[in-house]
Amino acid sequence: MTTRNKFSPEVRERAVRMVGEHRADYGSEWAAMTSIAAKIGCTAETLRRWCREEASRRTGPTALVGQDRDRLKLLEREVKELRRANEILRKASAYFAQAELGSVPRHAPGMAARLRPRQMVMAFIDAHAKELGIEPICRELAIAPSSYHEHASRLADPDKRSARARRDDEIKAQIGRVHEASFGLYGTRKVWHQLRREGIKVAKCTAERLMRAMGLAGIRRGKTTITTVSNPKAPCPLDKVNREFRINRPNALWVVDFTYVHTWTGFVYVAFVIDAFARRIVGWKVSRSATAGFVLDALEKANHARRPSASAVEMATLRWVDWFNNHRLFGPIGHISPTEAEANYYAAIDNLDMVA
Question: Disulfide: which of 15, 171, 298, 350 matches 271 by Cβ 3.0-4.6 Å?
Answer without folding.
Answer: 298
